UniProtKB/TrEMBL annotation:
InterPro entries: GH3, GH3_C, GH3_M
GO annotations of cellular component type: cytoplasm
Name of the protein described by the UniProt record: GH3 auxin-responsive promoter
Domain GH3 middle span(s) in chain numbering: 297-362
Top-level division of the source organism's lineage: Bacteria
GO molecular function, one term: acid-amino acid ligase activity
Length: 506
């Protein structure tokens, strides 16, 4: 009998009884006040009059009228560069012990995002909230006695100006509480291995010693790890070595495009739970099994604002125009795309995180990620979000009974005419022309703007098929394998030329 598991499950279940009534708007009001009061004596707080703002009866209104939007460049040029040099009390009291290195999907030089002690606590608290939400999922008691494989970046952090640097997954793993160490795999020693291939090799060798009940990590790299374990032990599927695997906590990108190829590695269905952990904080997690939407964490050191995702508010580089109107969580509407802006306990203020979201349930504050401001494909008016592109890829998988684990595309000019040029990562043998025609028809049927664009300046769709390994090699060539690095879904023309040159060289 799973005695410990029953105890843990009982505690999780009991938390439902003592849980206060949820009021996202009130929680967000309190978070904003706490952020302003904590940072009022910083250089940022003094510059924008936080003390005076706190005396106002319209704090949220004054905050958005006085403090400008910031992207990474603007925040760094004016504020964070001083923190990176070791100065104190710039945009948050004191000086952070960590910097999260993030190049996102660009593969270019890393951003260095402050991670304060308050942010470490915020991430940990959100993780506990997610664990407590497992009461809503039908999991057996013995699940809570199994080990958890957390596949992130290396925990071997580098020191720079008296602070430690690494990707947020590595920083989080290096701060795992002592009571969780026994459950955490691959363990400290393997997690510190910097080389991705070596780390995965060690995981494969040690795999029979572990009783893994849950996985956590970015889908593309998780798939590669599972494939390595299966290959190394000559298995048919991962459940032959980890029979008690029941949960996968996905994050970083939408799981949908990976669902078919991921499930092919399993021996039986498992529960997939989506999370939204960015370098800037733990923003949301899936709370209920009946939806794949995620609940915003509204009481935990992050204040959210939402800018309607309209062309007049977005500049060509994906940043916001200064006058773009922001809404609080009490003002949003269901089904509308919004650009997400956050202010945090790490000293990010009205910070453009780069994602677009929509609310699926306002009362529960549940959202889904619809894309990236930079990756919104709007050349010649097609107005395609990454969410819609993902849908199209899943449609192809179903129609042609194939697995497409990665993709990228560009609105490319060929002999003066615009085409949507797709690269699909699959080992299947299928006619690219048929894929092109099916993609085109699906997008016409599902997106009226795309249909109009096809009747005007958008000439058509072109598809090329390449091995999924080329996508992994591309990510590895731009940045270290594993961790937070993700594939660009939509590329600009110059970046696409680099991609095509890379593909030709493989």
């Amino acid at each position: 009998m799973a005695i410990l598991g029953n105890i843990i499950k009982g505690v999780i279940k009991a938390s439902e009884i003592i849980q206060p009534e949820f009021n996202a708007a009130k929680e967000q009001e309190n978070v904003l006040k706490d952020l302003l009061s904590t940072a009022l004596n910083t250089k940022f707080g003094k510059t924008y009059g936080f003390e005076r703002m706190l005396e106002s009866k319209t704090i949220a209104k004054d905050f958005r009228n006085v403090v400008p939007y910031h992207d990474y460049k603007k925040m760094t040029d004016k504020w964070w560069q001083h923190i990176q040099k070791g100065e104190n009390d710039i945009s948050w009291p004191g000086r952070p012990d960590y910097f999260a290195l993030s190049s996102g999907t660009t593969g270019k030089s890393s951003k260095r995002i402050p991670v304060t002690d308050a942010m470490i606590k915020s991430i940990r608290k959100a993780g506990i909230q997610q664990v407590l939400a497992l009461r809503n999922f039908d999991l057996p008691a013995d699940f809570f006695e199994k080990e958890i494989m957390m596949l992130g970046s290396s925990t071997d952090l580098e020191e720079h100006n008296n602070a430690l640097e690494g990707e947020i997954s590595g920083i989080s793993a290096s701060n795992i509480p002592f009571w969780f160490q026994g459950y955490y795999k691959p363990g400290k020693e393997i997690a510190q291995i910097d080389d991705w291939d070596q780390r995965v090799q060690h995981i494969a060798e040690k795999a029979p010693e572990w009783d893994i009940g849950a996985l956590s990590g970015i889908p593309s790299w998780m798939e590669l790890m599972l494939q390595k374990v299966i290959e190394y032990h000559k298995l048919n599927h991962i459940h032959e070595i980890w029979p008690n695997l029941q949960v996968y906590t996905s994050g970083g990108v939408a799981f949908g495009p990976y669902e078919k190829s991921f499930n092919a590695l399993l021996g039986k269905p498992i529960t997939v739970i989506d999370t939204y952990l960015a370098s800037e904080g733990f923003l949301a997690f899936q709370q209920r099994p009946e939806t794949n939407a995620m609940k915003l964490v509204t009481d935990n050191g992050i204040y959210f604002e939402f800018i309607p995702f309209k062309p007049e508010y977005i500049q060509p580089d994906g940043s916001l125009v200064p006058h773009a109107p922001s809404l609080t969580i009490s003002e949003v509407e269901k089904g509308q795309d919004y650009v997400l802006v956050i202010s945090t306990v790490a000293g990010a203020w009205r910070y453009l995180i780069g994602d677009t979201i929509e609310f699926t349930d306002i009362e529960r504050a549940e959202i889904k990620i619809t894309g990236r401001t930079k990756f919104f494909l709007n050349t010649v008016g097609s107005q395609l979000s990454v969410n819609k592109l993902d849908d199209a890829v899943q449609f192809l998988e179903k129609k042609f009974d194939i697995q497409i684990s990665e993709y990228t595309l560009c609105a490319n000019r060929i002999e003066g005419e615009f085409y949507h040029c797709w690269y699909l990562g699959t080992d299947a043998s299928v006619d690219p022309l048929q894929l092109s025609e099916s993609l085109d028809e699906f997008l016409k049927d599902s997106n009226k703007n795309y249909k109009v664009a096809r009747s005007k300046a958008l000439e058509g769709v072109k598809v090329k098929i390449v091995s999924p390994s080329i996508f992994h090699n591309w990510s590895g060539s731009n940045k270290k394998k594993g961790g937070q690095v993700k594939m660009e879904r939509v590329m600009g023309e110059e970046r696409f030329k680099e991609w095509e040159t890379f593909v030709d060289g493989q």
